[in-house]
């Protein structure tokens, strides 16, 4: 019975008393970022993007290589395209999980 007390205390602390006026986690998790395609490596499912700030990854603008998953996302994407994309940190591997050419 003693072991239940820390658990109940943790649950009580985890329950927010009021909503904070911040971006909901769900919206951040699916946030789309802007970028320009610099290089595409279809064989290895990799893409080099010059990207703007990645809010969900807390990353400043830079040019870097991302893994693409699924690799079929690269279909129809060309070097030089302006894109909107979503990237996630998959165990330390920055992975694009959604990408679309921006007008
Ligand atoms: Cu980056």
Task: Give an overview of the whole structure.
Helix content is 16%, strand content 39%. It is an alpha+beta fold. The protein has a single domain (28-101), classed as Copper binding periplasmic protein CusF (OB fold (Dihydrolipoamide Acetyltransferase, E2P)), CATH 2.40.50.320. A hairpin with a 4-residue loop joins strand 1 (33-41) and strand 2 (46-51). Residues 51, 59, 62, 64 line the site of copper (II) ion. Copper (II) ion binds at residues 51, 59, 62, 64.
The helix-and-strand class reads alpha+beta
Beta fraction: 35-45%
Q: Using only CA atoms, what is the Rg?
A: 19 Å
SSE string, helices as H and strands as E: HHEEEEE
Architecture blueprint of SSEs:
Blueprint: H1 4-14, H2 25-29, E1 33-41, E2 46-51, E3 62-68, E4 82-90, E5 93-101
Parallel strand pairs: 3-5
Antiparallel strand pairs: 1-2, 1-4, 2-3, 4-5
This protein binds copper (II) ion.
Residues 51, 59, 62, 64 line the site of copper (II) ion.
Brief summary:
By secondary structure, the chain is of the alpha+beta class. 16% of the residues lie in helices and 39% in strands.
Summary keywords:
binds copper (II) ion; alpha+beta; OB fold (Dihydrolipoamide Acetyltransferase, E2P); single chain; 16% helix; elongated; 103 residues; 5-stranded mixed barrel
């Amino acid at each position: 019975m003693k072991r239940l007390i820390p658990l109940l205390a943790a649950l009580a602390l985890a329950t927010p008393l009021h909503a904070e006026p911040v971006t909901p986690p769900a919206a951040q998790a699916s946030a789309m970022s802007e970028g320009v395609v610099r290089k595409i490596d279809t064989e290895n499912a990799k893409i080099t993007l010059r990207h703007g700030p990645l809010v969900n990854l807390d990353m400043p603008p830079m040019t870097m290589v991302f893994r693409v998953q699924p690799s079929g996302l690269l279909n129809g994407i060309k070097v030089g395209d302006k894109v909107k994309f979503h990237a996630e940190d998959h165990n330390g591997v920055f992975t694009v999980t959604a990408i679309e050419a921006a007008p």
